[in-house]
Design a protein that fits this description.
The protein contains 15 helices and 15 strands. With about 400 residues, it is of the alpha/beta class.
Length: about 400
């Protein structure tokens, strides 16, 4: 667990201006504790550094703008679920009961989010906003309106991916999907949409994570129905890279398709630029207005010059922190039920549009009795009745050894 109340910049400012008593009073005010459950170890660990940086940036901006509720800073209380549902339930219990967090950002994986919600946060009435849990099953949870996500659900991703695959002239695809809610849900969404566009799924294999070899499964998939490509729904560090390596070394497949779980530069670095050339897929993208996206990216690069603000789920993580902070401010309270009720009021229209880095202006509007409509780094959030964000899907592709965004789709 790590905690941070003051930003580096705010700390320096206070040191340089000891006479600024209002700032010191704010710094000493009781913090509002926000839980952040990340998969800092395990299969999703490679995605975490830029995601953590995005949450930290948002919290630093909010605290630099005077925090919430008359000067209370946000305090990030981080926990590592180790990419494991049982550990996720354990750390969520600690955050809710011992740390007394007002709300939670995360978890990252869909299966962990579902486990945490059912076992911990729904019974406790704690609102959670996941930036990266995309399984369709989250939309149907009996959650008492406590589960939200800034990532677009996989139903839309499956439709967009099917469209892109068919437009590339691919008619027959084999699917290898991680055996969890994310993998099974996205494989099903893609298969239904792909068949609807005249494509054929030659075979599907759900695999268990972190095995030393997947040669037998790949050989079986390659031998059925003459597939033109392999769709891999996985995470790099817990099976995805091993599957790609096995497929390349044994010549089972020459063409590869991925989803958000495999949209990572480490895949190219570990498998090689030549065999991964043309590897393409989809991930939750950005529907943000250009000026809002630019404001976010410039701030992110100033704080993290060697980290990619466009990496998977990074903008969505930044937005999760912002909507929670705005909900606290709009609710005028740290009561969990009040925050939950305020989330749609600050994220959805109507209201005056506010964007990344504009927390001070948003507070002014709210304090004046107005409404705000947060339009974030990933786009307008607009939570629907199920707590799902409405957004776009990114089309990415490996070109000259780099993972690049080549398009954005709403379907």
């Amino acid at each position: 667990m790590t905690s941070s109340i003051l930003t580096r910049r705010a700390t320096l400012a206070l040191g340089a201006l000891p006479f600024f008593l209002p700032g010191i009073a704010h710094a000493q005010a009781e913090p509002v504790r926000i839980g952040v459950i990340l998969s800092a170890s395990g299969g999703l660990a490679g995605f975490v550094p830029p995601i953590r940086a995005a949450v930290q940036l948002a919290i630093e901006e909010i605290n630099a703008a005077g925090g919430v509720l008359g000067g209370r800073p946000l305090q990030m209380v981080e926990a590592d679920d180790q990419t494991n549902p049982q550990v996720g339930v354990s750390v969520a219990t600690r955050l809710v009961q011992a740390e007394n967090v007002a709300a939670i950002i995360g978890p990252m994986a869909s299966g962990i989010t579902i486990a945490v919600a059912n076992a911990v946060t729904i019974p406790a009435g704690v609102p959670i906003v996941s930036p990266s849990a995309t399984a369709p099953a989250l939309s149907t949870l009996n959650d008492n309106d406590t589960v939200f996500r800034t990532a677009v659900p996989d139903g839309l991703q499956g439709q967009v991916l099917a469209r892109i695959v068919r437009e590339k002239g691919i008619e027959r695809v084999a699917i290898m999907a991680v055996n969890n809610d994310y993998g099974r849900g996205l494989a099903s969404a893609f298969a239904e949409a792909f068949r609807g566009r005249g494509g054929t799924v030659t075979a599907t294999q759900n695999f268990e994570e972190s095995r030393p070899s997947y040669r037998a499964e790949l050989q079986t998939l390659a031998s059925r129905g003459n597939p033109q490509a392999l769709l891999l729904i996985a995470y790099p560090a817990s099976g995805g890279n091993t599957i790609l390596r096995n497929a390349v070394e044994n010549g089972f497949f020459q063409r590869f398709i991925g989803t958000d779980g495999m949209r990572d530069q480490s895949v190219v670095e570990q498998i090689g630029a030549d065999p991964m050339q043309g590897f393409f897929g989809t991930a939750p993208g950005s529907a943000a207005a250009p000026e809002r996206r630019q404001a976010y990216e410039q701030a992110f690069r100033r704080a993290n010059p060697n980290t990619d603000p466009g990496a998977a789920f990074v903008a969505q993580s930044y937005d999760a922190a912002y909507v929670i902070a705005l909900a606290v401010q709009a609710a005028g309270s740290t009561e969990r039920a009040a925050i939950r009720e305020a989330l749609r009021r600050v994220a959805n229209a109507p209201g005056e549009a506010v964007g990344p880095g504009e927390f001070a202006r948003a507070k002014q509007i709210l304090q004046g009795g107005g409404q705000v409509n947060y339009e974030g780094a990933s786009g307008p959030i607009e939570f629907n009745a199920a707590g799902d964000a409405q957004g776009r899907i990114e089309h990415w592709e490996v070109r000259n050894g780099q993972v690049e965004t080549v398009g954005q789709f709403a379907e």
